[in-house]
């Protein structure tokens, strides 16, 4: 009887929308924070794990590969079995991975734990889909903008926190902290987020899942490890070409399947396709700044290019861009409702062009790098907020999770490419330097590549139709 009374009270007193938004934002912040965890200790991993540097690189690569594979699959599972349920499973897997790493210093065990932590990346697109399902239409744009902002905020704010912890405590504390955050998020989602009522009937496409996983692993291994293996080595070419060929076969299978993992006909709609292509360029421009600016700030002054700041001080210079993303997210929501998300994406890409243009012209003092980072915050805050809005205005309700997951995958392709390309450029410039450090010319080339990526995002954004693709039941209808 008491259980029935409790259930009636919960049904008659629906969860406040602000509580739902706050819980989903907290999961997004946890997800983005996970990807900056090992930045402060990355150079020390060979000593900490008693392993070769090439082996310790897998501590980062494993999380990247797992996140790329999990994100689109988790989106489809969310559409079919409930987004809240899949978020809970992703949090549980990430919690397990965090505990595994926190308890071990063995390289193989740490890689396994970091692979499990990659599951957390699926939380953000699923959280956006939950917002679409449970919030009133007038609240969705602002909420989606804030959720998208967590992609930058968690990393920007988490970096100085990670640096502070590693300076004063054992590195395992980082992973105990993430385990605690995941446990809290899991309880909050279980208690606050309502059970899904919008689900898609059908059978899960296991063959499509295997094919997509193999294709992504092949391509991303080639992109992320090509610098170490050699871009023309048989291993790199085999992974890259093999991944592309499997991807072609996978696409052919998806077009013929009755219940595909991803409906490629929906993904091929012009607004969706162009938005996903813009996501690659935006992801490249964002992660290029994450790779280049901290290195520039931390590099010794004697190198002729750096400022000689500590990791903590460099993190504090980068942090304001993430804070600005969150502060601008309500503005992004209002702008999207007033003039449409396409304009928001155009403004965001122009801000990125301005950021890299400013850096090309002025990069000799710390305040100039700070200004460039603030412009990056504006660009990513607006651009990342616009992309899921554009997607959901052009796909049916039963494709919300899968389509957002696919968009997140395209962003991951951009960030992976940026990490590989920027790393290769700076490594090449280091090889030409007597001190063995990146040169000012190498950094200048990275800035040029960044502005090219931002300009590509702008050009693609201009081609996106102002009116969404015709859809009888769009995930996010126009007002």
Automatic annotation (TrEMBL):
Residues 20-468 form the Major facilitator superfamily (MFS) profile domain. Its main location: membrane. InterPro entries: MFS, MFS_dom, MFS_trans_sf. Pfam families: MFS_1 (PF07690). The chain crosses the membrane at residues 20-41, 56-74, 86-112, 142-165, 171-192, 204-223, 229-252, 273-293, 305-331, 343-361, 367-387, 408-431, 443-464. It is found in: Cell membrane. Keywords: Membrane, Transmembrane, Transmembrane helix, Transport. The keyword Thylakoid does not apply. It is a multi-pass membrane protein. This is MFS transporter.
């Amino acid at each position: 009887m008491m259980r029935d009374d409790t259930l009636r009270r919960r049904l008659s007193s629906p969860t406040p929308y602000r509580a739902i938004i706050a819980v989903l934002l907290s999961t997004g912040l946890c997800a983005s924070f996970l990807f900056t965890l090992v930045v402060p200790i990355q150079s020390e991993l060979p000593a900490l794990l008693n392993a070769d540097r090439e082996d310790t690189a897998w501590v980062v690569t494993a999380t990247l590969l797992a996140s790329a594979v999990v994100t689109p699959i988790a989106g489809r599972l969310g559409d079919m079995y409930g987004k809240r349920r899949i978020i809970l499973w992703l949090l549980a897997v990430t919690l397990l991975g965090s505990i595994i790493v926190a308890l071990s210093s063995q390289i193989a065990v740490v890689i396994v734990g970091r692979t499990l932590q990659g599951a957390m990346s699926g939380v953000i697109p699923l959280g956006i889909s939950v917002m679409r399902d449970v919030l009133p239409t007038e609240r969705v744009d602002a909420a989606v903008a804030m959720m998208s902002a967590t992609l930058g905020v968690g990393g920007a704010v988490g970096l100085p926190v990670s640096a502070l912890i590693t300076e004063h405590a054992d590195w395992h504390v980082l992973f105990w902290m993430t385990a605690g955050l995941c446990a809290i998020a899991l309880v909050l989602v279980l208690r606050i987020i309502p059970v899904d009522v919008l689900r898609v009937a059908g059978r899960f496409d296991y063959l499509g899942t295997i094919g997509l996983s193999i294709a992504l692993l092949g391509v991303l291994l080639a992109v992320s490890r090509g610098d170490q293996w050699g871009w023309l080595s048989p291993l790199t070419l085999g992974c890259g070409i093999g991944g592309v060929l499997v991807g072609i076969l996978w696409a052919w299978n998806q077009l013929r399947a009755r219940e595909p993992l991803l409906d490629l006909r929906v993904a091929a709609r012009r607004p969706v396709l162009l938005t996903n292509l813009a996501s690659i360029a935006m992801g490249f421009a964002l992660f290029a700044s994450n790779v280049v600016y901290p290195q520039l700030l931390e590099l010794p002054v004697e190198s002729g290019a750096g400022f000689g700041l500590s990791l903590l001080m460099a993190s504090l210079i980068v942090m304001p861009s993430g804070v600005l993303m969150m502060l601008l997210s309500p503005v992004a929501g209002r702008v999207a409702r007033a003039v449409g998300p396409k304009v928001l994406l155009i403004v965001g890409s122009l801000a990125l062009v301005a950021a890299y243009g400013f850096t090309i012209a002025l990069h000799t003092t710390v305040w100039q790098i700070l200004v460039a980072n603030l412009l990056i915050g504006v660009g990513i805050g607006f651009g990342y907020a616009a992309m899921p809005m554009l997607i959901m205005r052009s796909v049916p309700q039963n494709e919300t999770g899968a389509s957002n997951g696919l968009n997140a995958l395209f962003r991951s392709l951009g960030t992976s490419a940026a990490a590989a390309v920027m790393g290769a450029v700076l490594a090449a410039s280091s090889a030409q330097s007597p001190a063995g450090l990146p040169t000012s010319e190498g950094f200048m080339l990275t800035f040029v590549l960044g502005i090219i990526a931002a300009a590509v995002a702008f050009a693609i954004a201009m081609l996106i139709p102002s009116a969404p693709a015709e859809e009888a039941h769009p995930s996010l209808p126009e007002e």
